[in-house]
Structure formats: C-alpha cells, structure tokens
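Quick log. Single chain, no ligands specified.
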Amino acid sequence: MSEREPSQDDAVWQDLVARLESAEAAPDPQDKNTSGRDSPESADAGNQPATGLSGPNFPAESSPEGGVPVSGPRDYYATDPEDDEFVPPEPAPLGTGEPLLVLAWCGAVGGPLALLLMAMFWRSAPFAVVVGLIIMIIAAGTYLVSRLPGERDSGDDGAQV
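-> predicted structure:
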C-alpha cells in the first residue's frame, strides 16, 4: 500500500494551528490578566491608561485582542440602595383573619381529605358521618363562592411596576 497524500483539510488545519501559535507567541503589552490587575510584563511596559468603560461601576480592563474594551453583565457593580427604596409594610399577624372564612376553607379542603382517609382506613364508617362530610363540603364551597366579588373593579389595571 502506498502512503496517501494529505488532504486539503489537513493543510487548512495546519495553517490554522500555525496562525494560533504565532498569535500566542506575541503578547500585547496592554494585556491584563483576568483579575483586572497588571501582569508583571505590562507593569514594566509603563502605566498606560486602559481604554473602555471605567468608573465606580465598571472596572477598567482591555481585551486580549487589543484596545477593544471588555465589558459584560458581570462587570457591573451595584451601588448602595437609595433612600427612597420601597419598604413593604409589616404583614398582619397570623390568626387575625375572619373566623367564618377560615372555617369555610377548612371545610372545603378538609372535607374531601377526610372522605379520602375514611375510604382508605375506616371502611365501615356510619352513613351519617359520610353524608355530614358531604354537606359540610357543599356548604363551605357555597360560602366561599358567595364571597367572591360580583363584578370587576373598573379602575384596576392589574399589576403595575
């Protein structure tokens, strides 16, 4: 068997690798390492101001390619909160709700749960207990539905920022 000649792809690949190795061999004197501090090589080259955004919210840093500034979403540092920031009011203590409304919710949620547990564990429950639970569920649901508003508030546009 004779040896095959390298294909066109191999030549392109070798050219690409050679260009990347030559780019790594010639560092830019304005380069900074990823921590944003000057490397020893760039500190010896002189204190040249970095191009791009700088200030209290943006670090001054240049990209490895040259003078193009590097800035991204993680380069922003939040400032202290302002005095006019929204502070939510203190919530009402627990247990200050309307007792009949709390009882209706307990009946509407607890009734079906009690029926399920009775069907699983107390198969010989008296008929009056089952009928009483069903009546309690219907009464609690009816009370909760009757408490719903009858019409929409015309001035309410929903949540607003």
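The chain has two domains: 8-74, 99-146.
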